Amino acid sequence: MMGRVMPPPHTSRRAVLALAGAALLALTGCGGADDADTALVLRIAPGDRKPAPAVSGDLLTGGSYDLAALRGKVVVLNFWASWCPPCRREAPDLELVYQATKTSGVEFVGVNHRDGRDAAKAFESAKTSFPSIFDPAGRLALRFTEIPPAGTPTTLIIDRQGRVAAAIRKATSVDELSPIVREIAAEQAS
Question: How many domains does one find in the chain?
């Protein structure tokens, strides 16, 4: 049987499928969800949106952040880590969309998780001008039970009413993110 790799006889089909799923997620990002059916880009109709959980914490550069203080603004919440190559690739695009939309009542905030503070601060200062919450234990992501971040990077867009309006569960780009943010920013407050 040259050239064919067989799993050990005691390996279950479920274990083989789990390993295959993990390999697929490794190709699309730095970390992933257990659910292989998770949509990579999810847009939620206004009537179907659920409130975002409480998001607050200490910022990498000092000070604190509280999502509740930004009610009435669209918030782009990006989960990232300095060790994540897709996060590094998407950072300039996030910055471009941030600069292009901040005068439209749009705020960006990063959530640095599963990372060291020094590496995160170096990454943030070189790549983005918006603030980031330091969450080394990854607790903030766990609060999003309705629309969970499925890996690193993940970008969630919170509407003006504080509801999760969209999720991008992979590295994003200007061409993908900008129209979603602009559409949500243009919605009438209800």
Answer: 1
